[in-house]
Amino acid sequence: MIELHRLGREPEPFLLNPDLIQTVEARPDTTVTLTSGERLPVVERPEDVRRRIAAWRTSLLVDAARTIGLDPDVLPFARRG
Questions:
Q1: CB–CB of 31/9 below 8 Å?
Q2: Which pLDDT belongs to residue 77?
Q3: I need a labelling partner for 62 at 20 to 30 A (CA). Which of 9, 27, 35, 72 fits?
Q4: pTM over 0.90
C-alpha cells in the first residue's frame, strides 16, 4: 500500500492499493482515478505518486526474493543509488 493525502483544508492521509490505480493526472490538482472510476484529488504530484508505486512494487519483489532464498542485493531492481 502507498500513503497519499487527500486534497482539502487539512490533507488527510490514507493508504491505497496501487493495483487499483488506473490513471494519475495533473488537472491542475493531482487526481488519481481508480479502476472503479472513482476520482481522488490528492496533494502529491503525479511524479511523487509514480515513485511511491515503484518503491512499493520493488519492495514486493525484494520480499519475494528473500522468501525463496535469493539475496536481493544482487538483483538489479533492488539496487539503490
A1: no
A2: 67
A3: 35
A4: no
